User: What shape does this take?
Amino acid sequence: MATLTVPAKPVSELARRVAVAVIAVPATIAVIRFGGLVLGAFTAVIAAIAAWELFRMARAGGVDPLDAAGVPLAAFLPLLASVAPPGVFALPLGASAVVVLALLVAALVRRPSAGGHPLAAVAITLFGVLYTGGMLSFGVALRYHPYVVGQTAGTALLLLPLVLAWATDIGAYAIGRLVGGRKLLPTISPGKTVAGAVGGTVVAVMACVAYAHWVLRPVAQLAFAPWWAITVGIVLSVAAQLGDLVESMLKREAGVKNSSGLLPGHGGILDRIDSVLFVLPVAYLLCSVPGVLIPVPV
Assistant: This one.
């Protein structure tokens, strides 16, 4: 007797995105909580994959980067930040000179096979290293900010820019779909609207005020000075949207839809952290401005 086979229903993109998020978000929080070399190693792996994806896009755009040197160097910067003393961020930044020298040496060695454009190869590789590993290093530095006392406080402070980046993304998507209207930068990202950008910023400000009151103050014993919660929300939301637009520009030049297909329903690692890459250094710099963050008594 013939067996009737019922074709399996394809898993929706939304279901895949939710499944990845359900695993990734708790895992990320746990790694941030552990801190130290665990956080450094995790960030290094993310930086290495993101750099590989960027170099892959660059190659699709006609530039031949120095992958063998760039990928490990991108991973090196977050690792260096994880062993640097708290508040001493000059050490990983100073490593940029070592990165440049290493890339120049790699270009010399590979010059006969670098397509006759060693300067372009060094430039895109250096950009990739600093764009991924360099930017992510600020997350490690924020986890051990001088104002932070204890693991829980460091976790709460580092999660702030991540929450605001996610809030911006959700707000921009929801308001943009609901309102529509004028396109923000149609030549770079046709789907983004002015209404979505404003909506994402409003949602981020609300999230920042709520996070500062319900999480940052009771958990990290830190508070923003008056009006700074609103300012931080606006600035970090703008930074998140700029990060998203920059990656869209890079993908459009390379002629690809996603940086890779590593994450089902999400694209690549770079597609997921594009806004975070801009938010982390801006958050670190804002929190380091005297008077923005104020320690509060328990």
User: Anything to note?
Assistant: Residues 166 and 204 are 8 Å apart (CA to CA). The radius of gyration is 21 Å. Strands lie at 183-185, 189-193, 222-224, 293-295.
